[in-house]
Design a protein that fits this description.
The protein is an all-alpha fold and 184 residues long. Helices cover 71% and strands 0% of the residues.
Length: 184
């Protein structure tokens, strides 16, 4: 068939629903952000407070093994409580998240406008809202990467370290033979 005779042909395949039309935009955005070395550096910098808090959790659970007795209330500031995680997420992570969002959010849309991808996106049956949902999903996924994931890791490590220390103390008590002989 000659080219000038070709006209629009309806799609004969199965049409997908509107629910996940934004997902390819988000996955492509995540891949593009990972290619930028500056973003990897910013993610690393944003994770520095996590490393600091991780050291605090490990120090708190090893206070008994320090050679000298620490001051009486030394461990209260570094104990993993709700306030510990609140301060981690609201005071320590905020600056890194804001800087990361500034360097990530604007280039996501600007790159599409620069290379003319907007016409390609909107030639398909996708709405502006779905496009923005896909681009927003990229930002949200990276914010979760530097806030929620480290907070959950801190919580899991805190539980793991505390249960390990508790088991070690329990074994040490069970091995002490002097306590059993004094009772008789």
């Amino acid at each position: 068939m000659p080219i000038y005779d070709q006209s629009y042909a309806h799609w004969k395949g199965r049409l997908e629903g509107r629910v996940f039309r934004w997902l390819p935009i988000m996955l492509n955005g995540i891949r593009l952000v990972f290619k930028r070395k500056l973003m990897l550096l910013l993610i690393g910098v944003a994770l520095i407070p996590f490393m600091f808090r991780l050291g605090m959790v490990i120090l708190y659970h090893n206070l008994d093994s320090l050679p000298e007795n620490p001051p009486e209330h030394f461990g209260e500031e570094i104990r993993a409580t709700g306030n510990f995680y609140y301060l981690f997420l609201t005071r320590e992570q905020v600056f890194g998240v804001i800087v990361m969002c500034l360097f990530m959010g604007a280039p996501l849309v600007a790159r599409d406008m620069r290379v003319g991808a907007m016409e390609v996106y909107f030639a398909k049956p996708i709405t502006v809202g779905e496009y923005l949902l896909g681009k927003g999903g990229v930002v949200v996924s990276y914010v979760f990467l530097v806030t929620l994931v480290p907070a959950l890791l801190l919580y899991a490590i805190s539980i793991g370290v505390s249960s390990y220390i508790w088991r070690q103390k329990r074994r040490k008590k069970e091995k002490e033979p002097g306590d059993a002989q004094e009772e008789n």
